[in-house]
Fold Alkaline phosphatase.
Amino acid sequence: MKLHVFTSGLLFLLGFASTIFAQPRTNKTNSDIAPANIRPLVNRGHSHNDYRQNIPFLQAYYSGAGSIEADVYFHNGRLYVAHAKEEIRDGFTLDSVYLRPLVALFTKNNGRPYADSSFSLQLVIDIKEDHEHVIPELLRELAPYQRVFNDPANKHCVRVVLSGDMPEPAHFTDYPSYILFDGRPYTKYTDQQISRVAMISDAITEYTKWNGKGTLTRQDSVKLRQMIEAAHQRHKPFRFWATPDSPNSWIQLEKLGADWINTDHPQQLHDFYINRKKLLFANPSPYQVYKPAYKIDGANKKVKNVILIIGDGMGPAQLQAGQTANHGQLNITQCRFIGFSQTAASNSGNTDSAAGATAMATGHKTNNRAIGTGPNDEPLANLPDALSAHGIRSGIISSGDITDATPAAFYAHQPDRDSSNAIAADLLTSHVDVLIGSNQKSFLQNKDKGLMNKLSAAGYQLHLKLNELEKANGGKQLVLLSDADTRPVKDGRGDMLKTSILQTIRLLSGNKKGFFIMAEGAQIDYGGHANDLPYVVTELHDLDKTVAEALKFADEDGETLVIITADHETGGLTLLDASANNGMVLGSFSTNDHTSINVPVFAYGPHAQDFTGTYPNTALFYKILNLLKAAK
């Protein structure tokens, strides 16, 4: 993903591994660390009060934390890890819990704290009291491990940073050079003293009452940013402690420019960052949307044609993500008449695409996995079947496998969506005039060796390339694309879906009785299952550009109704941060499966008002059928 400079805050949000404003460093010392922006985001975690984790040190370490904090007391001649004296317990020493495990991992990684050389580590020793005794004992305990903490020839050494009850800055030089200190923004340091400071830290509660919800006030944001920038001017990273600890607060700290993200939940922070590439999408160049004329929108006029566009897996959050990423505009949201479809299957609150599409295609609820059949496996008449009796021709399009659940429900009748060969063979008895999608194998290598001859005898002209369809005029068309032709948009699919709907409209619009087209944007769903927001958004934008062509045709034709909806929502998407000005969205997924939330229904054209309100997905069948029948 190419990153562009939007704002200084967004730079920290988008800077995965490199690329950010970093002033040239001068007077570099052994306390200077690589700027957070050129380390992996996951390595920016500071595991606060780490010893309170269920598994101290190792949980934070395997979460990729770059800074791990242990509070210590000098007790019975040893350093014990505890938050308060009364919490000291036998065996829970700094050496046993932190130093020896760290040394073992350092050895395993051939002289690095992490196997990944881009990761660094600092061990923050928070001295609760009596640094005069703690520091000498710490030096004694570190002495056997000098190759880990004090090897001038190894840039990957673990930094030791003292915090809490520290000596005065004037005494920093009383201690070995590998012992560094946690600085404070209000302390004035000489050049020599600042060279021993590893980072600048302070409690965020000293400067703001922000509780982690929403954003900081402008005044507080300016104040905190100035503190961080002052530390950066001295080439030191900055950390706030006592911060709210949630995804939203982590985002806001990033935007401020904080180098360390303080957390008591290192595993959650790791999970939040590790898939950031799949959860963040930025689109610096929006596409222009079509502005409908609205002359026939909502008019009580004849509906001759219906174009039903289904964004598989497209819920409200997916639409919001797509709209934000296109700088606040979608063709879909140009529609003024909006309703909601209830998606439950007959045997489950969560529908799959098979039951969801069957409900829209047949007007009947059915079990998950069923294609064009009822709960007892009985075949159900679909829209192409019902409309053919009135002379209306139909086209079915998918940007994925044409035997997959959503397109299959409009031409096939099988109790199991995985019956790809049988679904392909059902085209023989369907009333579909144009079928476009991938999965050549299920047709060309069908168990029925004579299927293609039978389809030819039934009048279907076979095309293996979409551009071959341009030469077709009338008749039945079967376009079986290679799987590569329906690869994801982000991998170079191109405008296959838009071209398909334009060609299908061209082929069917000459029919005097009218047409019905179902076009599916299949891979919004794939992106949801993969919890991949860039995948979701690029597929939604592809669908949206197809919607533009449908709206244009509706304006030109005057008798065409366009409906845009979904079979279900996929992924439980939520949006954590967004900027329409910059086309940036940051999301999170709660599941890799479908959810039961209602999906929107947008309508444009004559009788678009009939699709407002909230209703079961089966109602779409009857609304479409009644409008087209009424026109005959």
In short: The domain at 305-573+584-630 is CATH 3.40.720.10 (Alkaline Phosphatase, subunit A). Residues 1-37 have pLDDT under 50 and may be disordered. The chain has two domains: 8-14+38-271, 305-573+584-630.
